[in-house]
Design goal:
The chain is an alpha/beta fold. It has ten helices and eleven strands. Helix 1 links the parallel strand 1 and strand 2. It binds FE2/S2 (inorganic) cluster.
């Protein structure tokens, strides 16, 4: 029989696995006043979710779900992260366990790390990749001139990338591969970074899109108020599926996250126009407006 003393809870918990579930468990325990050790075998917490763009079935942005928890855990005085750690042995009984954990070396003093990234830049073991000479990107003159003008307007400002991409996107409606390569060449941003940004934001696209993009809000409020039925009716009307474009390049149908007017749910946005409190009966009128290429861009919220 264990002694009475051995039954006294020690007031600390170990959460094994730093994925989204482990992170939430650690936060819940810590907010209940329990000291938490969050162990993960990887160099950082985040788990598989950190590798995802969107989550099923609501298409929520994975990083938007995870980032607030990461920040909260990083700042919480009662949560210690044990990275590169494996559980070796567990002894004891409920309320009083002793866990032996082995940690792999990190070569960085975590108590002094500010996340500045200087160690990465100066890592002596990192393979130095010699830059490969690539031929200069030449665009079709009809593309090159407007894109070059946009780049010239923003290039010397602070943080020029987003303004450049937004303006190019507004001009061309999508990013042809050659244009992204040209922007990389002219601004010095790595092409991989440009692709990351161009494929992250739903306002951007790397495939051609129609003149009008019908954004059907699939955010939670709109979804529970029937936006899926609106999407189905639009798809049926235009004879395309979500994310597709009509053959005449007039209309692209797109499911998006909350467009910021939940009070009008279910809502649809086309350019600057917002159509709210819709029913499937309203779809025909909206579709007619854009299928003929006569969208007037005026708001029609109700
Ligand atoms: S959920 Fe649709 S506008 Fe917010």
């Amino acid at each position: 029989m264990p002694s009475d003393e051995s039954k006294v809870p020690v007031g600390a918990a170990l959460v094994v696995g730093g994925g989204i579930g482990g992170m939430q468990a650690a936060l819940d325990l810590a907010s209940g006043g329990i000291k938490v050790y969050l162990a993960d075998s990887k160099p950082a917490i985040g788990g598989v979710m950190a590798q995802l763009d969107k989550t099923f079935p609501t298409n929520d942005c994975a990083m938007c779900t995870m980032a607030p928890r990461l920040v909260e855990i990083g700042r919480h005085k009662d949560i210690d992260i044990l990275s590169l750690s494996e559980v070796e042995r567990i002894e004891g009984q409920p309320g009083n366990f002793t866990v032996t954990i082995s940690r792999r070396p990190r070569f960085v003093d975590e108590s002094k790390c500010t996340g500045c990234g200087t160690c990465v830049a100066n890592c002596p073991t990192r393979t130095v990749v010699q830059p490969v000479e690539v031929p200069a990107v030449q665009l079709d003159p009809s593309l090159q001139e407007p894109v070059a003008n946009i780049i010239a307007r923003h290039k010397n400002r602070q943080g020029p990338l987003m303004p450049i991409l937004q303006e190019v996107n507004a001009t061309l409606n999508y990013f042809p591969e050659g244009v992204l390569k040209y922007i990389a060449q002219e601004t010095g941003y790595p092409l991989t970074h440009l692709y990351r940004v161009a494929t992250f934001y739903s306002a951007f696209s790397v495939v051609p899109r129609g003149k009008y993009i019908i954004n059907v809000c699939m955010g939670t409020t709109c979804y529970v108020r029937g936006s899926e039925r609106l999407m189905d009716r639009f798809a049926e009307t235009f004879k395309i599926r979500p994310e597709e474009t009509t053959p005449d390049m007039l209309v692209t149908l797109k499911g998006v996250r909350c467009i910021g007017c939940c009070g009008l749910a279910p809502a649809v946005m086309v350019g600057d126009s917002v159509y709210g409190k819709l029913t499937v009966k309203d779809v025909a009128g909206i579709a007619k407006k854009y299928a003929g290429g006569n969208g007037n861009g005026k708001a029609n919220a109700r």
